[in-house]
Amino acid sequence: MAKQTFEESLQELEAIVKQLEQGDVPLEEALAAFKKGITLSKQCQETLTKAEDALTKIMQENGEAVVFEEEEK
């Protein structure tokens, strides 16, 4: 089986969250879904971190300093 894309993982994670929020899932299924959700969350975070690192490297190779900071609203 091919590895899921970031978008597929995020979509599955969102479905798990909705399912668990409804609260009508048997305990065993809820625990399995929670475990899967944690795994998906870690995969998504890892993908985002790798993308940020790659972008920083690309930008730095172009001679530009890049600082990733959240915009103030």
Automatic annotation (TrEMBL):
Signal peptide: none annotated. GO terms for molecular function: exodeoxyribonuclease VII activity. One of its GO terms (biological process) is DNA catabolic process. Its EC number is 3.1.11.6. Pfam families: Exonuc_VII_S (PF02609). Belongs to the XseB family. It comes from the Bacteria. Bidirectionally degrades single-stranded DNA into large acid-insoluble oligonucleotides, which are then degraded further into small acid-soluble oligonucleotides. It is found in: Cytoplasm. InterPro entries: Exonuc_VII_S, Exonuc_VII_ssu_sf. It is an enzyme of class 3 (hydrolase). It catalyses: Exonucleolytic cleavage in either 5'- to 3'- or 3'- to 5'-direction to yield nucleoside 5'-phosphates. Heterooligomer composed of large and small subunits. It comes from Enterococcus canintestini. HAMAP family: Exonuc_7_S. NCBIfam families: PRK00977.1-2, xseB. Keywords: Cytoplasm, Exonuclease, Hydrolase, Nuclease. This is Exodeoxyribonuclease 7 small subunit. GO terms for cellular component: cytosol; exodeoxyribonuclease VII complex.
